[in-house]
């Protein structure tokens, strides 16, 4: 069996990381071989790119520079880690991928979703996830969750204004309209067990289809 490539998207505090971890356990219990990853995925070249992007001191970074760096890190992560796992038949769960760039750089930074999609297609060779789960939480709720969790380290993008995060949310809504087949929306304001159930049943559908 060829693998299955599943990505998770959402604004800050949507709970992606916890959902990904718990989902992986459920899939493993069913006997699936699962790879959990997140951009930049522990790939050393991509990690270095990421340090440049998220460094709180790099306030002069141009929006297109930022978009190109994310795309470059994505390329390396895809080639070194995601594609080999898919070729080995694994289910790959990736915390953020191309749609983050479309929402954050394309819409929130104002470059344009089309332009950012173009450079990302160059980076990925046109490869898209099999399915994407959008964990939907309005920014006011997501940001509140982050600030209540003081142990979480705050990076350059966390420190953006509230207005920026509102734009990210708007961006995701546009991206959803653009890829209605691929992206599934899950209400992430519901209790966690319910969110996980919803995600699991969507994923099971794709797993069964691949069989
Ligand atoms: P991270 O600490 O991974 O945040 P989170 O836990 O919310 O995923 O930081 C990633 C930040 O980078 C986050 O603010 C979203 C942003 N980002 C982009 O702007 N474009 C991208 O393509 C990706 C992958 C992330």
Could you please describe the fold and organization of this structure?
The chain is an alpha/beta fold and 211 residues long. The protein has one domain (4-210): Rossmann fold. It contains 8 helices and 5 strands; from the N terminus they run βαβααβααβααβα. It has helices at 16-29, 44-54, 63-87, 98-108, 113-124, 139-148, 162-178, 192-210, and strands at 4-9, 34-38, 91-95, 131-136, 183-187. The protein has a 5-stranded parallel sheet, with helices on both faces. Helix 3 (63-87) crosses helix 5 (113-124). The relative contact order is 0.20. The mean pLDDT is 94. The site of thymidine-5'-diphosphate has 10 residues, from helix 4.
Q: Could you give a short account of the major beta sheet? A: 5 strands, parallel
| Beta strand % | 5-15%
Helix and strand string, N-terminal first?
EHEHHEHHEHHEH
* Contiguous helical run count: 8
The CATH superfamily is identified as P-loop containing nucleotide triphosphate hydrolases
Q: What is the CATH-assigned architecture? A: 3-Layer(aba) Sandwich
Shape type: globular
Distance between the termini: 7 Å
Helix content: 55-70%
- Which radius of gyration do the C-alpha atoms yield? 16 Å
CATH class: Alpha Beta
* CATH topology annotation: Rossmann fold
Q: For the largest beta sheet, what order do the strands appear in spatially?
A: 2-3-1-4-5
Mean pLDDT score, rounded? 94
Judged by helices, strands and strand pairing, the structural class is: alpha/beta
């Amino acid at each position: 069996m060829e693998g299955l490539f599943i990505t998770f998207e959402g604004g800050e505090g949507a709970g992606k990381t916890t959902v990904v971890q718990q989902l992986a356990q459920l899939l493993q219990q069913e006997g699936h071989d699962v790879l959990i990853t997140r951009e930049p995925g522990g790939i050393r070249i991509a990690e270095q790119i990421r340090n440049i992007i998220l460094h709180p001191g790099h306030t002069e970074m141009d929006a297109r520079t930022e978009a190109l760096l994310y795309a470059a890190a994505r390329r390396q992560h895809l080639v070194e880690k995601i594609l080999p796992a898919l070729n080995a038949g694994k289910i790959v769960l990736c915390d953020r991928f191309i749609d983050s760039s479309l929402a954050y750089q394309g819409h929130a930074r104002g470059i344009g979703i089309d332009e950012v999609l173009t450079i990302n297609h160059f980076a990925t060779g046109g490869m898209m996830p099999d399915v994407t789960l959008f964990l939907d939480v309005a920014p006011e709720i997501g940001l509140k969750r982050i600030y209540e969790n003081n142990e979480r380290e705050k990076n350059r993008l966390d420190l953006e204004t509230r207005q920026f995060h509102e734009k990210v949310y708007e961006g995701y809504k546009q991206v959803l309209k653009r890829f209605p087949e691929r992206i599934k929306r899950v209400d992430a304001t519901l209790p966690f067990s319910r969110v996980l159930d919803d995600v699991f049943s969507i994923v099971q559908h794709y797993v069964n289809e691949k069989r």
